[in-house]
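Reviewers asked in the last cycle whether our approach scales beyond single polypeptides. To address this, we selected a multi-component target totalling 904 residues and predicted its structure end to end. The input consisted of the following lines:
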Amino acid sequence: MEMNTLNNNNNNQSDSSSPPQRKRVMNPVDPEEFRKQGHMIIDFLADYYTKVSNFPVRSQVEPDYLRKHLPDSAPLVPEPIESILEDVQEHIIPGITHWMSPNYYAYFPSSGSVAGFMGEMLSSGLNVVGFNWISSPAATELETIVMDWLGEVLKLPQQFLYKSSNNNGGGVLLGTTCEAVLCTLVAARDKKLSQIGRNNIGKLVVYGSDQTHSSFGKAAQIAGIQNVRAIKTKRSNSFALKADSLLSTIHSDVKNGLIPIYLCATVGTTATTSIDPLMELCDVAKEYEIWVHVDAAYAGSACICPEFRSCIDGIEGANSFSFNAHKWFLTNLACCCLWVKDHNALTKSLSTNPEFLRNKASESKQVIDYKDWQITLSRKFNALKLWLVLRSYGVENLRNFLRSHVNMAMTFEGLVKLDKRFAIGATLTEEHHVIMAWKLIQEHADSLLGSS
Amino acid sequence: MEMNTLNNNNNNQSDSSSPPQRKRVMNPVDPEEFRKQGHMIIDFLADYYTKVSNFPVRSQVEPDYLRKHLPDSAPLVPEPIESILEDVQEHIIPGITHWMSPNYYAYFPSSGSVAGFMGEMLSSGLNVVGFNWISSPAATELETIVMDWLGEVLKLPQQFLYKSSNNNGGGVLLGTTCEAVLCTLVAARDKKLSQIGRNNIGKLVVYGSDQTHSSFGKAAQIAGIQNVRAIKTKRSNSFALKADSLLSTIHSDVKNGLIPIYLCATVGTTATTSIDPLMELCDVAKEYEIWVHVDAAYAGSACICPEFRSCIDGIEGANSFSFNAHKWFLTNLACCCLWVKDHNALTKSLSTNPEFLRNKASESKQVIDYKDWQITLSRKFNALKLWLVLRSYGVENLRNFLRSHVNMAMTFEGLVKLDKRFAIGATLTEEHHVIMAWKLIQEHADSLLGSS
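The resulting structure, written as structure tokens, was:
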């Protein structure tokens, strides 16, 4: 690659209307430039973490604040990294809401960590595209192994783990829960349509509760499914979806000629932290051959602690399970862990086999091509991040980290109970007590305690 | 956050069956630990780039090579970064196919760069979740601005730029083309179904050619659209989709009671680098109110050079346009740039409005909430990467970088022509001549020249 030698200095003299013939151009991956700038950015971010708790958590800017600070057009000539970092400091930092601040309590907590960041860096630096095994065997194999590790720590049934399910089940890393729900929903849809004919898509019906995350309705919308049931829950039942409510809704739908295909059960709902009773729901679902997906977006992390594992009791009856490691598991955005019992159901809907991707390894069926387990073709080396988190902290430290949050939440709940202006919103079982309390502290501590 | 002080040493003594009460746990974002490890990873990657050209480009491992090198379970106790990096060196590097090698010519080229990596680092380090404006105004506003910059450099019609379209059009950063196609397809589908009723989904039909990327068929599958036309192309027409072939296919479909909704036209197909004639195709589409998406996944980058801009002549008739900056624009994976003329068509299909995301800024309609332009809810601060690429290299350097590849491709094409064992596959126009030649060198130079 002799032509790609570094020569930034005379590139700006060229005229766009007269392309040069064999001009020497810059080397975009010059190792020494990489080293220099990399160290600068690391120091920039380390300094940011040192002072982040001093910033107002929520950005104070007004809509359209940024345009007046930036030029109208992209620069024609290169600008030094020093000027760019100055602009980040002056114009970008004031415009961000500081998810990495220890005073941040909105939505879900910032779950970035040293290990999560280092894993992301390695993945971005190696910059492999792991759509199939051959395009980077390590990217595929590490993902399968790490998902088996994590599945074991969560005490998922053997059918969800690749190795111990005789390669029928297994885990995959996606970006977000929305993707996990969409992929499994499409798999469930197509499984049913292959039996009853594709023209019956209008008859399909899917189930959640009025507490289910909005991404469920969106996934159904994207998948072309028009019948979405948001079954009513009650405060007296801690806003959990009751099996008999599900059953009566199904009965009514079936009587009307509709065909049930999918239930999205939630462990730790966003608004009320309710936990749907998996065992009873799966029993109902089984009778109607309904695919059960369990969305434990934030609460799933806590299940690595033996004392909280009961939150997902009944998971053995489900078809798929997902949680977001970027929510409460020290993994930088984005990292959604999805396990399925039958990955053929996914690949039947999502696989493609264009001529330019054919290779002996795929044809041998001895390898996984994760492109067929997800929406997109291209994918990063996702597993490095989760691997570094598990190794850098170790499972016991991760458990203690989660426990420390639960302890803080219990303390906070005690404070809330002392204040007559507040009430705990739902009768709590021991398990979601801690999760609800955790959510309380995450969502309200900021305004209650005036910590920012 | 007093409880989060660093105390890695005694955490491993705990027993998982007896949760500690108010134990001090590790600080997952300790700035000095971040600084130390960050510098180590930067050096690790810089060293990797120094020697990457010495490795065999394609990994030489056999399926299931990795399990025997790794433990069966996740570690209970923390491991130092030094041990982890040793394992990366010994067990991961031999298992990757080196997309960053200068000798890599498969699929599309490694498009990582110093600037792309630094942008990704900043985004991962700030770790903001930019689903709506309020969650980090800078993440939204920089994206809108940078996409206006890049749209202007590409000379996209004003209707595709946010500012100059009176805020009707605009750009968004997604992960891959698959997402761009799925989002626009769903928008087109729902626009039609809102007129004719959702029960008519089985009548909808979408169009591409037999050269269109496989992600088009997959997106249609996900969106529940069963009628997908892969219109035949011919070598004599350089494998481009002819407008009269499109028209006769539409005629036949309409006669059979089907309803045309979407055309995926391609500028630079994967297998044969053909360029569909946008102007003629858009004329046909307009007559039938068909949404035209233009997929210029790799070739779009070249259109920043005035001499290659004619590849997308006719784009003014399209509804949406996308290209992948991670393919040929020095941006690390993943970065798909999508522009639309009417972002309301996207948000009508993809918006959600759960109680926990409501806020004054969104309700004022003065801001963009990009969650409603994409499949997922969560999203990273995507624009930093592209902003750093544009600023660090400058538009003129980027043009020269692309031109240097085209020049190499022309040289290579000359060599191919001299060798009687090879023929150029299609009659070439001047514009896709260079793109086809570029693809040739990318895909075949390795085996032809024996460079690895």
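The longest strand of chain B covers residues 259-266. We regard this as preliminary and will revisit it once experimental data from Aim 1 are available.
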